[in-house]
Design brief:
Elements: H1 7-10, H2 14-35, H3 37-46, H4 67-72, E1 86-91, E2 101-105, H5 106-122, E3 130-133, H6 142-153, E4 156-159, H7 165-174, E5 179-182, H8 184-196, E6 208-212, H9 218-228, E7 231-238, E8 243-249, E9 256-258, E10 263-268, E11 282-288, E12 299-305, E13 307-308, E14 320-321, E15 332-334, E16 337-339, H10 341-350, E17 357-364, E18 367-375, H11 378-384, H12 388-403, E19 408-412, E20 427-429, H13 430-434
Parallel strand pairs: 3-4, 3-5, 5-6, 6-7, 17-20, 18-19
Antiparallel strand pairs: 1-2, 7-8, 8-9, 9-14, 10-11, 11-12, 13-14, 15-16, 17-18
Helix pairs in contact: 2-3, 5-6, 8-9, 9-10, 10-12
This protein binds 5'-O-[hydroxy(phenylacetyl)phosphoryl]adenosine (DLL).
Length: 435
């Protein structure tokens, strides 16, 4: 499977890509400096002028932008074109503080949908496919982005949005959906619901799934692939840079190609801001070099990952990012140890448990506590009942080996952990509530 949406760009030689990026970056910096007073101030404070940026090699001279800047500049402070040129807003799903509002011109939407079309074509999508989009529609970028990409490819698009699982299944079966787009946690829920209704994995016509918007492990990928009888691919993006399609997985299923003709990635040390070489783990930073309305330079995503230029068997030369290992602000520090929810998910699925779990962190007598509620499948429930505490101890010990700290594991009855139709809430940190 070697399909490209834009072969010239997707297989471009590195030197040509750098030249293209440099040309676009120089133009973009000028555009932002002239039209976004907020960023002009940041540049002036750092003593950088647009003339100092002659190409990608000068990128590091520019100041970073953070979510706090976007909140401060809310709603119009980062807008780089007159409002009458904008045709759409989208907004982040964040639950704390002011939401971030991103603006799009018609051309911004066109380029964003192109990125999503690349993702669909990379997993074999064509005009013969029926693409069921059950990411949320509305302010969230998931639904509109994949919807636009699916239209461009010419798939028959089912704009389902999230939720109403009964109807999702009915349309999936009656209309023979071949591509499923949603969060991985919702894909697992759909898989579980199909099984409950007596469907086997090969009863549906699905071939592939394009899942993202939240962290998920390789173990979760295998679980979803088995449940639905499909190949599951990752897709990454964030509202601030457009939405889904900033990066997408190809048939190799090992990391996501970044659409670097639109977004220049960097990896930095999150503490010092120092740029790290490819292959080192750190915080991902993006510079949008084609966006007109909301062009962010050196935006700190807080996502932790690794970049790689290793040759890919799909033929694409676009740089790859690893699956985000979590966000620097998702990382829990429990009794001094850094813990990512994905580490716990890996152990649970390896040990044969369901992907339905919840992590509860609290503080008692000045000591952090870590409780993990793990839901049993109906089969496990009847087998395990007699010996529940032995199973809990065994799982706790496997997690201790992974994390270096001992959790309390609670195996709970089927259907007791709330399912997610969008981004799953895996962690309840009660310490934050007390502080
Ligand atoms: O989640 C955009 C999106 C929609 C991506 C649909 C993929 C599919 P936001 O709501 O702004 O945008 O959240 C962005 O979600 O910084 C990551 O922390 C996380 N995220 C997105 N994709 C992935 C992924 C959308 N594939 C934030 N793996 C990002 C892990 C992801 N985390």
């Amino acid at each position: 499977m070697n399909n490209y949406w834009n072969k010239e760009i997707e297989t471009m030689e590195l030197a040509d890509m750098k030249a293209l990026q440099s040309e676009r970056l120089v133009k973009q910096v000028k555009h932002v400096y002239e039209n976004v007073p907020y960023y002009r101030d940041l540049m002036d404070k750092k003593g950088v002028k647009p003339e100092d940026i002659k190409g990608v090699e000068d990128l590091h001279k520019l100041p970073f932008v953070t979510k706090d800047d976007l909140r401060e500049a809310y709603p119009y402070g980062m807008l780089a074109v007159p409002l009458e040129r904008c045709v759409r807003i989208q907004s982040t799903s964040g639950t704390t503080g002011k939401r971030v509002v991103a603006f799009y011109t018609q051309e911004d939407i066109n380029l964003w949908e192109d990125c999503c079309a690349r993702a669909i074509v990379a997993v074999g999508g064509t005009k013969d496919d029926v693409c069921q989009v059950c990411y949320g529609y509305g302010l969230f970028t998931g639904g509109p982005g994949l919807n636009g990409g699916s239209h461009k490819v010419g798939c028959l698009t089912l704009p389902m949005s999230s939720g109403n699982t009964e109807r999702q299944i009915q349309f999936m079966m009656d209309l023979g959906a071949t591509i499923l787009c949603c969060t991985p946690s919702y894909a697992a829920y759909i898989g579980e619901s199909l099984k409950e209704r007596g469907y086997r994995p090969d009863d549906n016509k699905l071939r592939v799934g394009i899942f993202g918007a939240e962290p998920w492990t390789e173990e979760m990928r295998r679980e979803i692939e088995d449940m639905l009888g499909i190949k599951a691919y990752d897709i990454y993006g964030l509202t601030e840079t457009s939405g889904p399609g900033v990066a997408f997985e190809c048939c190799e299923q090992s990391g996501m190609h970044i659409n670097e003709d639109n977004f220049i990635p960097e990896i930095i040390n999150p503490e010092t801001g120092e740029v790290l070489p490819d292959g080192e783990k750190g915080e991902l930073v993006f510079t949008s070099i084609t966006k007109e309305a909301f062009p962010l330079l050196r935006y700190r995503t807080k996502d932790i990952c690794v970049l790689s230029r290793k040759k890919c068997s799909c033929g694409r030369t676009l740089i790859k990012m690893s699956k985000p290992m979590g966000r620097s602000d998702d990382m829990m520090i429990i009794r001094g140890v850094n813990v990512f929810p994905s580490q716990i998910e890996t152990v649970l699925l390896k040990e044969g448990y369901t992907p339905n779990y919840q992590i509860v962190v609290d503080r008692q007598n000045h000591t952090d506590t870590l409780d993990i509620n793990v839901e049993l499948s109906p089969e496990q429930f009847s087998d395990t009942m007699r010996d529940i505490s032995a199973h809990e101890k065994k799982l706790a010990s496997a997690i201790t080996t992974m994390l270096g700290i001992t959790p309390k594991v609670h195996l709970v009855a089927p259907k007791t952990i709330t399912r997610s139709e969008g981004k799953a809430v895996r962690v309840i940190d009660k310490r934050k509530l007390h502080d």
